TrEMBL record, chain A:
Record-level GO BP terms: transmembrane transport
Protein name in UniProt: ABC transporter permease
Primary localisation category: membrane
InterPro entries xrefs: MetI-like, MetI-like_sf
SUPFAM superfamilies reported for this sequence: MetI-like
UniProtKB/TrEMBL annotation, chain B:
Family matches, as PANTHER family: SPERMIDINE/PUTRESCINE IMPORT ATP-BINDING PROTEIN POTA, SPERMIDINE_PUTRESCINE IMPORT ATP-BINDING PROTEIN POTA
Domain ABC transporter per the UniProt entry, residue ranges: 7-237
Record lineage: Bacteria, Pseudomonadati, Pseudomonadota, Alphaproteobacteria, Rhodobacterales
Annotated protein name in UniProt: ABC transporter ATP-binding protein
A Pfam family it matches: TOBE_2
Keywords carried by this UniProt record: ATP-binding, Nucleotide-binding, Transport
A GO molecular function held by the record: ATP binding
Region forming the signal peptide: none
Length: 285, 364
């Protein structure tokens, strides 16, 4: 590599290096140091793992995390189950204009801010909302019904928020599946289930894995939806982190929670990849 | 009729909206034979194949396998299998699983499947590659695996949709011979579609030449070449000099015509040709005798002397374009016996061919 090549490489790489170091690596190091500070008096700190210990010794924190992780897994599975037929229809059955229109319809809601979309669900689900009024009008129920502030409402919100991030990788991988593969699957005696199980799903596996990782991480790190649709009864781990930082001014514990969320969620993703026999290289490659 | 054919298509018609893709086609394929449908792209041959496989429903007509109509049978229950144009081997499975896919669908015992897969690989000459991935195989090996994957199911009819198209020339030549011997070894009826006439001519017992949704001629390869029934077949199968001309006189089936370029030719009429009618005449470059002087070619109904306008050297298939007296050029195959090796532009050559070598079809 000549001097020119070197200069070119430095110029090309510098935005990435700056972005990574200034916005991701340095703040994380700072937060990590912060998370290791144990408060022993007014403005007195010592380095210890006490903040991390708190997480494991206080059942509320641990349970909230487990609940958050479990709900996120459920949201991921449900999103996959809903998105797969939609993606298959868009990628393999719809043709031409219909295909673009359907894909656009998945995309358009994401042009609106997440906050507005969540308010949209609140308008539908609240006590004086559209669903409640419709049920009363049709005579199915006699009084107003509150759909908001429970796990189901939150799940609806989470799935809605994540749908696009599952549909896009699935459509991309399914589109790359040659139609003749599917035909060959039938031609050699397979039925719809066999073809799905042995040909379509294995082919779509990279899309399924990457979509699931993104949706799981988005759900786990979601703050708005659990707060607005889940209400007080649906405590989310991100709410804990928020309250440590903002309400209790306990940045040290908040930072520790942040790192625990990062570590534990990575552990869950790693475990799921191991369980399903997939690797990150295969998915990203 | 005592012998039941493996495949009968009866008045098969397929219409897509306004276009008639397959127009009233009937044919029968006897047991154990190699049947080809040859035609340019867009002639409807793929449509026929997809109807036989069950991926398309005919608009009208019937498809019978071993004498029984299969129109109501779904693709995965039909006793036909297809080798796809790009083979459609499943990349997510290894070779053994690919070949075993159909057997697993039949719910066979795992041991039996393994034995059948090993046997199939043996028969296509690739023993012991069951554990390899699809992408580790060469083009020719993939081809054989695709055939093994179908043959292991013992179909009544094997459909092949231009499977050699993706191979390079040398391998294609090799696979032609190999496909033919595989067909003989498995003793199964092959229905092969292609736009490559040499594939069809080399391998097939019967070839149907198809154009614009219809069969132009269904015959043996030799008859298609020597005795084409229609101008399309004469032009499509093999190479030809092709002239449009006006008939001067007719005596018996001998026709004397003058081409648009002003050459006078004596030929043989195919079908009825009347004096004064416009006809198309076809002469194969390789049917023309060629010599350095008039004495060398002997007596022929048609003989010309001309000058070499261009030498198109292509090894065994070398040609010269000869400009003859009276106008027009004639495409002549050069015998590679040595005497024409030093041929130059402008050299004089004498050519001649018999009346039976120039076929005249009444133009429509």
């Amino acid at each position: 590599m000549g001097a020119h090549g070197k200069l070119g490489f430095i110029l090309l790489a510098s935005p990435l290096v700056l972005w990574l170091s200034l916005l991701i690596i340095i703040p994380h190091i700072d937060l990590f140091i912060l998370s290791l500070q144990e408060k022993i008096g007014v403005r007195q700190y010592q380095t210890s793992f006490a903040n991390y210990m708190t997480f494991f010794s206080e059942p509320l924190y641990l349970r909230t995390f487990l609940r958050t992780a479990f709900m996120s897994i459920v949201a991921t599975v449900l999103t996959l189950l809903i998105a797969f037929p939609i993606s298959y229809y868009i990628a393999k059955i719809a043709r031409g204009r219909l295909q673009s229109i359907l894909f656009l319809m998945c995309l358009v809601p994401f042009w609106v801010s997440e906050l507005v979309r969540t308010f949209g669900w609140m308008i539908l689900l609240r006590e004086t909302g559209i669903f409640s009024n419709f049920l009363q009008w049709s005579g199915i129920v006699s009084g107003p019904v509150e759909f908001l502030y429970n796990d189901a409402a939150m799940m609806v919100g989470l799935i809605y928020t994540s749908m696009l991030f599952m549909v896009v990788p699935l459509v991309t991988t399914l589109e790359s599946l040659d139609d003749s593969m599917i035909e060959a699957g039938y031609d050699l005696g397979g039925n719809g289930y066999n073809v799905l199980r042995e040909i379509i799903i294995p082919h779509a596996m990279p899309g399924i894995v990457s979509g699931s990782i993104v949706v799981f991480m988005l759900s786990l790190g979601n703050y708005l939806t659990p707060i607005m649709l889940g209400g007080k009864d649906s405590l989310w781990f991100t709410e804990m982190i928020y309250s440590q930082f903002i309400v209790r001014f306990n940045w040290e514990l908040g930072a520790a929670f942040g790192f625990l969320l990062l570590g534990l969620s990575s552990l869950i993703v790693w475990g799921a990849l191991k369980l399903s026999g997939q690797t990150l290289e295969k998915t990203m490659g | 009729m005592t012998a039941v054919n493996d495949l009968d298509c009866i008045n098969l018609t397929k219409r897509f909206d306004e276009t008639l893709a397959v127009d009233d086609v009937s044919f029968s394929v006897p047991r154990g034979s190699f049947f080809s449908i040859l035609g340019p792209s867009g002639c409807g041959k793929t449509t026929i194949m997809r109807m036989i496989a069950g991926f398309l429903d005919p608009t009208s007509g019937d498809i019978q396998i071993k004498g029984k109509s299969v129109l109501d049978t779904v693709p995965n229950k039909r006793p036909v299998n297809m080798v796809f144009q790009h083979l459609a081997l499943f990349p997510m499975m290894n070779i053994a699983d690919n070949i075993g896919y159909g057997l697993r669908r039949q719910g066979l015992d795992k041991k039996l499947i393994d034995a059948k897969v090993a046997d199939a690989l043996e028969r296509v000459g690739l023993p012991g590659i069951g554990n390899r991935r699809v992408e580790q195989l060469s083009g020719g090996q993939k081809q054989r695996v695709a055939i093994a994957r179908c043959m292991v199911l013992e179909p009544d009819v094997l459909l092949l949709d231009e499977p050699l198209g993706a191979l390079d020339l040398k391998l294609r030549e090799h696979m032609k011979v190999e496909l033919k011997s595989l067909q003989a070894a498995f003793d199964t009826t092959f229905v092969y579609i292609t736009h490559d006439q040499s594939e069809a001519l080399v391998m097939s017992d019967q070839v149907a030449v198809m154009n614009a949704g219809r069969f132009e001629q269904l015959d043996t390869a030799a008859n298609l070449y020597y005795a084409p029934q229609t101008p399309f077949v004469a032009g499509f199968v093999g190479d030809s000099n092709r002239w449009k001309g006006r008939v001067e006189s007719v005596s018996g089936d001998q026709v004397k015509l003058v081409t648009e370029t002003g050459v006078s030719i004596i030929g043989t009429a195919r079908g009825t040709v009347q004096s004064g009618a416009t006809v198309e005449a076809f002469v194969r470059p390789e049917a023309i005798r060629v010599a350095h002087s008039v004495n060398g070619i002997g007596e022929h109904a048609n003989s010309f002397v001309g000058n070499v306008e261009n030498v198109l050297f292509n090894g065994a298939n070398s040609r010269v374009l000869l400009r003859v007296e009276g106008g027009g050029t004639i495409d002549v195959a050069l015998p590679q016996s040595g005497e024409f090796n030093g041929l130059q532009r402008g050299d004089a050559l004498a050519i001649g061919w018999g009346a039976s070598q120039s076929l005249c079809f009444g133009a429509n």
